[in-house]
Write a structure and sequence with these properties.
alpha/beta, single chain, elongated, N-(1-d-carboxylethyl)-l-norvaline Dehydrogenase, domain 2, 17 helices, about 425 residues, about 45% helix, six-stranded parallel β-sheet, Rossmann fold, 14 strands
């Protein structure tokens, strides 16, 4: 089938590359000329494991194309995906749908024949109705269907998530659109992937509900971790004991400094605003948003406490800046709250991240960026692990101790065991576990 993907951000690029790998002919459209040129030459503007090889193969085999020209891409397409950004709107937290609606207007002007217009971007309930209205108003004669097809991609594992998903959700009551979407995802039938066909508004809400529930699980275990700190219990053992219950599950029960990234903060806030507008507030999610915001700031206090209550004039080494490993995404990362709070308390901050440094250099002031964990730790009064990159999981503790001014580690991801760190001679603080 012929696919047009409007937007080559994270979702658009991964989805386009994977559809091309399924055997479809995919044209990705972006207005940024430099970005299009980079992609056509096999370069990748984002960090996602395996995506570079997938894009290069698609371009080389002639199934994946990049262009600034929306006209030809849409006119020839069986399905046109809208995969543009929907950031939180400044001031009120609603999803900003400016780019979605602009794409709908452009698609309306050039589409030819029956076209399935698919919202892949994360959008509030009712957005598909408005996209349909916009297209119908611009082209009363057009033959088209508007479909909701939310993405459930995890940064760092997006390709596997697209090709081996837990489920595919499609929101449409149109039989022709259903046939097109079934053909697009036909390769997944070999893996017996559940494909859920539902009403469009239901599909849109599924995405928000899923992300809000996962954010709630993270926030729940973080609060239990705080209780463990007070009671002398071990949150990892609590999480295991709870997670082995099949009704609950073990995923997203890892205590840490709070969730971040491009999805959970934005989507929980958008769901809260949507629910308030509908006069049906989701108070549980409102609380989750508030707790998570405060938690990130509280992590700086935890570091200061580990340094005997004072970091003024001390050097704090930070390992990990991105909101999670295997991505260069800094959006809503805990480090964005922790580092400025430490600097405000008088600390000198040195940092290392395997992929996030380029972006971080634009976001932080007066931070010394280094090229490796041991350079970062040299002469430091304390070392703080914020992101659980694999290269931080097996550090040479004796080398680390010898290079630091004081053997103090604050592990906000519970990578190491207190017993191991004690034996290595470290003063060790973690999340929700006896020191």
């Amino acid at each position: 089938m012929r696919v047009a993907m409007i937007g080559t951000g994270y979702v658009g690029l991964v989805s386009g590359a994977c559809f091309a790998d399924f055997g479809h002919d995919v044209t990705c459209v972006d207005k940024d000329a430099a970005k299009v040129e980079t992609l056509n030459s096999g370069g990748i503007p984002i960090y996602e494991p395996g995506l570079d090889l997938l894009v290069q193969r698609g371009v080389r085999e002639g199934r994946l194309h990049f262009t600034q020209d929306l006209t030809d891409a849409v006119r020839e397409a069986d399905a046109v995906f809208i995969a543009v950004g929907t950031p939180s709107r400044r001031g009120d937290g609603f999803a900003d749908l400016t780019y979605v609606y602009a794409a709908a207007k452009e698609i309306a002007q050039v589409m030819d024949g029956h076209t399935v217009v698919v919202t892949k971007s994360t959008v509030p309930v009712g957005t598909g109705d408005e996209v349909e209205r916009i297209i119908r108003e611009a082209r009363p004669d057009a033959d088209f269907s508007v479909v909701s097809n939310p993405e459930f991609l995890r940064e760092g594992a997006a390709i596997d998530d697209f090709k081996r998903p837990d489920r595919v959700v499609v929101g449409t009551n149109d039989e022709r659109a259903r046939a097109v979407m079934t053909e697009l995802y036909r390769p997944l039938y070999l893996n017996e992937t559940p494909i859920i066909f539902t009403a469009r508004r239901t599909s849109e809400l599924i995405k928000y509900a899923a992300n809000a529930f996962l954010a709630m699980k993270i926030t729940f275990i973080n609060e239990i971790a705080d209780l463990c700190d007070k009671l002398g219990a071990n949150v990892q053992e609590v999480a295991r004991g709870v997670g082995l219950d099949n009704r609950i599950g073990r995923k997203f029960l890892n205590a840490g400094p709070g969730y971040g990234g491009s999805c959970f903060p934005k989507d929980t806030l958008a769901l809260v605003r949507t629910a308030q507008d509908a006069d049906s507030p989701v108070r549980l999610i409102e609380t989750v948003v508030d707790i998570n915001d405060r938690r990130k700031r509280d992590m700086a206090d935890k570091v200061i406490a580990a340094c005997e209550g004072d970091v003024d004039g001390k050097t704090i080494a930070i390992l990990g800046l991105t909101f999670k490993p295997n991505t260069d995404d800094m959006r809503e990362a805990p480090s964005l709250e922790i580092i400025p709070a430490l600097q405000k308390a008088g600390a000198r901050v040195r940092a290392f991240d395997p992929a996030g440094t380029v972006e971080a250099e634009h976001l932080f002031q007066d931070v010394e960026f280094t090229s490796g964990p041991y350079f970062c730790a040299e002469g430091a009064d304390a070392l703080v692990i914020i992101t659980e990159w694999n290269e931080f999981r097996a550090l040479d503790l004796s080398r680390l101790k010898s290079t630091m001014k004081a053997p103090v580690m604050v592990d906000l991801r519970n990578i190491y065991s207190p017993e191991e760190m004690s034996a290595a001679g470290f003063t060790y603080t973690s999340i929700g576990r006896p020191d």
